[in-house]
Amino acid sequence: METYVEAWHWWVAAAALTVIEVFAPGVLFIWLAIGAAVVGAVLLAVPTLAIELQVLLFGVLSVVAVVIGRSYLRRHPVHSDDANVSRRGAQLIGQVFKLAEPISDGAGGRVRVGDTFWRAEGKGSIRADTRVRVIAVSGASLVVEPADATEGAAFEPGDADR
């Protein structure tokens, strides 16, 4: 029994590889999709091309497409409009939140951000429920300062219990 592969088989494979590219990280499957689409076009011109040669052509074209694509992307890198897209803490810089747990000398507090709590660090002592502005990120902690100059005056340990 002989296997027949028609041009549309390769185009379906190209479409499937393109869909995978959309959901997969990085840029790889699009080059394989280009290889599959070109093999489909070649198969229109040479419908009797043996399956072995089709697969070989797909492999060669895919490697060539990957090499050319990587070379192009190295010379023309894609820059994001949001440099902090994968850095959640950096996205919070400048925003104001309410301090959930106080910051006292040497001991960090906690800031509620949405439905999450972040460890907070700051200079001196800052009372709980004080509005604080995120000024930096240190590891997994937010560095904060009182949002208003009149808020967050120093307090004595134990004031948070009141």
Structure description:
There is one protein chain. The chain is α+β, with helices and mostly antiparallel strands and 162 residues long. It has two domains: 7-75, no CATH class; 88-161, Beta Barrel (OB fold (Dihydrolipoamide Acetyltransferase, E2P)), CATH 2.40.50. Helices cover 39% and strands 19% of the residues. It has helices spanning 7-23, 29-45, 51-75, 88-91; strands at 96-101, 109-113, 116-121, 131-138, 141-146. A five-stranded mixed barrel has the order 1-2-3-5-4. Helix 1 runs antiparallel to helix 2 (29-45) and helix 2 (29-45) crosses helix 3 (51-75). The longest helix has 25 residues, at 51-75. The protein starts with 6 loop residues before the first helix and ends in a 16-residue tail after the last strand. 21% of the residues are buried.
Walk me through the topology.
Elements: H1 7-23, H2 29-45, H3 51-75, H4 88-91, E1 96-101, E2 109-113, E3 116-121, E4 131-138, E5 141-146
Parallel strand pairs: 3-5
Antiparallel strand pairs: 1-2, 1-4, 2-3, 4-5
Helix pairs in contact: 1-2, 2-3
Please provide a brief summary of the model:
The protein has helices at 7-23, 29-45, 51-75, 88-91; strands at 96-101, 109-113, 116-121, 131-138, 141-146. 39% of the residues lie in helices and 19% in strands.
The CATH topology of the largest domain, please?
OB fold (Dihydrolipoamide Acetyltransferase, E2P)
Report the portion of residues in β strands.
15-25%
CATH top level assignment of the largest domain: Mainly Beta
Mean pLDDT: 83
Helix content: 25-40%
Beta strands, count: 5
